[in-house]
Amino acid sequence: MSLTGGNRNDVTQLLPLLDKIPSVAGAVGRPRRRPDMLFADRGYDHDIYRRLLWQRGIRPVIARRGKPHGTGLGTFRWVVERTISWLHGFRRLRIRWERRDDIHEAFLGLAVCLITHRHVQRLC
Asked: What residues contact 50, with CB distance under 8 A and at least 6 apart?
């Protein structure tokens, strides 16, 4: 994960984020290093990034600017928005008070562990 300033555009971090995806073990053979598709909203609608994704073998599913809604991307985006909402339930993460990014990332990891623990408890 890369920690950037709050006023940075998200699209500038798209390729570094893809580079940091860990390999995923699954079926027999070489572990996967990249996703098949990338779902994104209109903020990522640039031909440059579409081309770069295609060059990496990733199919971009990006909503077009100026087109009406109805692409179906909202069903996938809701999962991300819900997760961010859960993280904002922790006051310390809602507003970043720590100056050091390692401390902020530690609190973020702790929050993810607590959220996961709550969901596992609900299943048992």
From this structure: 60, 62
CA 99 to chain centre: 23
Answer yes or no: is pLDDT of 1 > 60: no
SS3 state at 57: coil
- Per domain, the residue ranges of the chain are 1-69, 72-124
pLDDT, tens digit, for every residue of 76-114?
667 777 888 888 888 888 887 788 888 888 999 999 999
Alpha-carbon distance 93 to 83, whole Å?
Answer: 13
For the record, the structure tokens of 91 come out as 């006051």
Structure token digits, residue 100: 């050091």
